[in-house]
Amino acid sequence: MKPTLTLIGHASMKIKTAEGVVIYIDPYYDGDYSEPADIVLSTHEHYDHSKIEIVTKKPDCEVKRVADALNPDLSHNSFDIKGVKIEAVTAGGNQNHHPDNTVGYLLTFDGLTVYHPGDTSKIPEMEALKDRKIDYAFFPIDGVYNMGPEEATECADLIGAKHNTPMHFFDADPMKFTPKNLLRMNYGDTIDLE
Fold first, then answer.
1. Domain with 147 in it: what CATH number?
2. pLDDT of the chain along its 194 residues, tens only?
3. Residue 17 is inside which H or E element, if any?
4. Terminal-to-terminal C-alpha distance of the chain
5. Which of 24, 127, 135 is nearest to 81 (CA)?
6. Rounded to whole angstroms, how far apart are CA atoms 181 and 37?
7. Which of 63, 74, 149, 178 gets the highest tally of CB atoms within 10 A of its CB?
8. In terms of Cα–Cα distance, which of 49, 126, 47, 136 is closest to 93?
9. Where are the alpha helices (H) located in the chain, listed in sequence order?
10. What per-residue string of b and e applies to 58-77 under the rule 16 or more CB within 10 Å gives b?
11. Separate counts of helices (H) and strands (E) for the chain
């Protein structure tokens, strides 16, 4: 079985590994959360990223919120859960999101790395992500609470992932997100990861 990723909508997504491990990130957007989760991740506690209760969970499901991922000294934690490596990384950099209360995540599984940045603007720490050879990266482009599509394009080109997808639109025009290696997904789309 190939791993898959569903962009449920906004910053909400579902990943299913080749082994069938089900991961939801930032549950909120209206969609299907019925497949029982092994892992639920929230990047920060704003209501549109942390609606954990809408997710169907397996009895041994592990939920990781920003309080689990981020230490008081702003160092970040990593987790190995059911064959998935989850690394919290710095996020924020704008007036609505600060590095002391929000994180992004790098998820490594099946020989692939997926970057979910949470809510963020361009930050210096993104430069180090280029060395991680990320396969799939997602970027908020709303331009109200985070960076807009032009700044998100700069971030995508800086990180250099194999596939770059806009999310967290609100009223922003996703057509203005124009990085190299662009992968457009509509909310609700599912892709095979390879």
1. 3.60.15.10
2. 999 999 999 999 999 999 999 999 999 999 999 999 999 999 999 999 999 999 999 999 999 999 999 999 999 999 999 999 999 999 998 888 889 999 999 999 999 999 999 999 999 999 999 999 999 999 999 989 899 999 999 999 999 999 999 999 988 999 999 999 999 999 999 999 99
3. none
4. 11
5. 24
6. 30
7. 149
8. 126
9. 66-69, 149-159
10. eeebbebbbeebbeeeeebe
11. 2, 12
Q: What are phi and psi of 130, to 5 degrees?
A: -60, -35
CA dihedral 48, 149, 125, 113 (to 10 degrees): 70
DSSP character at residue 12: E
DSSP tag of 158: H
Total tally of structural domains belonging to the chain = 1
Q: What is the pTM of this model?
A: 0.96
Kindly report the CA angle at 171 between 168 and 176, in degrees rounded to 5?
80
